[in-house]
Every structure is written in structure tokens, then in C-alpha cells.
Design a protein that fits this description.
The protein has 73 residues and is mainly alpha-helical. The protein has 3 helices and 2 strands; from the N terminus they run αβαβα. The longest helix is centred in the N-terminal third of the chain and has 12 residues.
Length: 73
């Protein structure tokens, strides 16, 4: 988390390099959970595609103009 992006920043555009480094070193040792900098759904998808085990999402939903569209159907 500290290497990805500041909490609440939504600035995940540069996270791929850092997530790749973390995954390369720690995958299989500890779960990789991305918990900062996700501002849009595609940021979460990118983190998962890079190999993260999970993402925690707040800002992308909290700052959404239509957060009700996020609920499960």
C-alpha cells in the first residue's frame, strides 16, 4: 500500500510498476491487497490483472456521482 499511491488520492495511474515489484517479491508469501489510490473501476481491474489477490475500494465509490450503481444486482 505505501508504494502504490496516497490514501484517498485516486492517483493510481502509476501503480503498475510498484504493484509488479511487490507481487514479484511477496506473492505466495502474503496476500497482496491493494488499498490505496484506486480512483476508477479500471484501476481495480488493473491491480487484479497484475496479480493482486484483492482490492479494497472506497474513494472510487465515495466520490462517485452515482454510487448506487455499484451495488450487487
Amino acid at each position: 500500500m505505501p508504494l502504490a499511491s496516497p490514501i484517498g488520492s485516486g492517483g493510481a495511474s502509476s501503480i503498475s510498476t510498484f504493484i509488479k515489484l511487490i507481487i514479484k517479491r511477496y506473492k505466495g508469501i502474503v496476500p497482496i491487497v491493494v488499498d490505496a489510490g484506486l480512483g476508477v473501476p479500471s484501476d481495480a481491474a488493473q491491480a487484479m490483472e497484475l496479480g493482486a489477490d484483492a482490492v479494497l475500494i472506497n474513494t472510487a465509490i465515495a466520490k462517485s456521482r452515482t454510487p448506487w450503481k455499484w451495488r450487487a444486482r
